Amino acid sequence: DQQVKQNSPSLSVQEGRISILNCDYTNSMFDYFLWYKKYPAEGPTFLISISSIKDKNEDGRFTVFLNKSAKHLSLHIVPSQPGDSAVYFCAAIKRETSGSRLTFGEGTQLTVNP
Amino acid sequence: EPEVTQTPSHQVTQMGQEVILRCVPISNHLYFYWYRQILGQKVEFLVSFYNNEISEKSEIFDDQFSVERPDGSNFTLKIRSTKLEDSAMYFCASSELGVGGYTFGSGTRLTVV
Question: Which of A51, A4, A103 is nearest to B44 (CA)?
Answer without folding.
Answer: A103
